[in-house]
Every structure is written in structure tokens, then in C-alpha cells.
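Researcher: I'd like a structural prediction for the single chain below. Treat it as a standalone chain; there are no partners to consider.
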Amino acid sequence: MLEVCNSINNIPKDQFLKLENDNPFLSYDFLWSLENSDCVNENVGWITNHIIHRDDEGKLDTFTPTYLKYNSFGEFIFDHAWADFYNKINVQYYPKLLVGIPFTPVRSSKFLVRKNETAKKLNIVRDIKKILESNNISSAHINFILGDDIKILNGENFIRRKSKQFIWENNNYISFNEFLDCLTSRKRKMIKKERQYINEEGIVVECLEGKEITPDLIELFYQFYLDTNYRKWGNVYLNFDFFKNIITRMPSNILLVVAKKNNEIIATSLHIKSDKVLYGRYWGANNYYKYLHYELCYYQAIEYAIKNKLNFVEAGAGGAHKISRGYSPTYTYSAHYFANEKIHSLISDYVDREGDYIDEEIDYLSKFKPFKSTE
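Model: Treating it as a single chain, here is the predicted structure.
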């Protein structure tokens, strides 16, 4: 039976844990931390409307992270042009229905079920369309989708939209040096030079996990996070309570990389991990230090992934400079459905043309991969 749930607190955690999910950002504790720190609420335009189904015994059978959105901030799939178009033709775009993880551009299935059952996922997608119709909502958007979900959404006339990220893949490297040996001489020398510079500056880097990450460290990390965002005119979506919550509730998923100079912590990067993927998420420093961002966010992440036999490092949105550090341009996908058929058709045409541009861009960027030719 379909329900719309306005808080993760209303879902029993023990039932949630029986759903298939290998992504820490879709864990009960991550979503709980977002909601209970007030990072997600009506005041910031994210209204929780999780779509759930229960079985005949009333136990949780499916979960879809869903929000009624009154803006397009914190999504990392950009639809401002669509909102503009709606405004010009005097049709209401907001609120819209968003299926995704707030402030988190991470690939995952967004339809959690007890088993990977296509029929249940198909029912969820059809219920989403019914929710649009019965509540006069303009559109539904499912961000950073994967695998079979793409096929299901295509079959229900959702528009598949292409985007890109830069992702590092572990080709069974034994060590960081073996990874470097796979790069061209020029790129290998560049990375060695950058890492050597950090060492010569007397900067020492340490990786901390789980309970090694003390409350004092989190406070310092958060101050760096704020300072860096303000210097870059970035958006600060997450508050201190959120970070305190995830360290408390999901410590085994957290990696904090700390840089020290003269025994003083000068920078940190916080990563979240699953059994197969290390996700580079949040970074900050007390000042500008040459090459330090590359060291804490990319090279340390690669070293950790190799040491712990993780398959990928996903370093978030943006940044073509990641290519020369071994991160490849990779397709990501979202899916979109517009209740108005004419608008749906127009945007579908737009997305097709946009997709051709994304194809060209990925082809072009792929020419700059730093790896030696295998031909």
C-alpha cells in the first residue's frame, strides 16, 4: 500500500535495514542526520515526502527518498532553464517532486526494495506519476540513477538526461606507484612533483577513521569547510549538527584526511565510503596551500582505495582538472517526467540535443586522459 511519509523518524529503522541498499548516502542514518539537523526542511525548500509501500503485514516493503521542492538548490542536476521556460509561458513549475539525496551528486538506485524486484520498482514509478496528477505537481525528477532503474524509467516515458562526472577506477593496482606507472611520463612527473612539494613544505598527512575522529576534529573540520565555502562564494547547505550526527551514527563509513604543519592542523577532507566506493565529499583549509587540495581530495583518496581494494573513487561534481590526476569523464544520468504533454515533448527534444553535446564533450575530454596508450 502506497504512503507518503513526511519524516524518516516515522519509519522503523529495523524495517528499513531489510531493504537492499549498498550506498551509505541512502542509509537510514545519513537521511536521519539530514532531517534531524534541519538541513532539510520547509524553510530551505526541501519538504520530505518519502514514498513508501508496506506489505500485507504492515511492514516496510519499499522506500524512495522523495522531496517536494520549491527551488532547485542542492541538486547538482541543473534545471533552471526549465523553470525559466515555465515562468515565461506563465505555468507553475514549483513545487516539483524530486527523488534523490539532498546535496549529494552520487550515483545509486533510488528505489529501495527488499529484493531487486523490477515489478515493485515499476509500481513506485507509476505511483510517482499518479502523485503528480492527483496533486497538480508540474514534474518529477529522479537524479543520479543507475542500472535497471534507467530501463524502468525509460519504459514509463521518463526523459533520460545525460550528465558527467570525473571518476577514478581501480584497475587492481597493488600500490599508488603502480598506478603512477600506468600514466604518461609527463603526468607521472607532475603528480610526483605536487606530492613532493607538500612533503618539502613540512606538511604531514594522516588518515583517520571511525572513532579516531574526535568531536574536536569535527569542529575544526567544519570551520575549515565554512571558511572555504565563503571564500569561493559557495553554498553552505550542511550545518555542524549534520556532521556531528553522521560521525556518531555511521562512524564506520567515515574517513577524515588531516593535514598538519608544525603540529597544527591546517586542512581536512571528509570522505564517505561503502564496501566498493570511496566518495570524496567535503574539504576545507585555514588558508591557501599550493597543491594541498589535490593531495587531500584526490591522491590520498586513490591511495586509500588501492590499499583497501575499493573499486572507485567518486569525487563529486565538476572539475576537469581531475582528468590529469587519473579521474575519467563518466556518464551520469537523471530522469524527468512532465505532467504537461506538450512541455514534456519540448523538453525531451531539448534533452536529446543537449545529450549530443555531452557526448561530444566526453569524447573530447577523454583525449586528455593521462594513461599510457595500450595500442
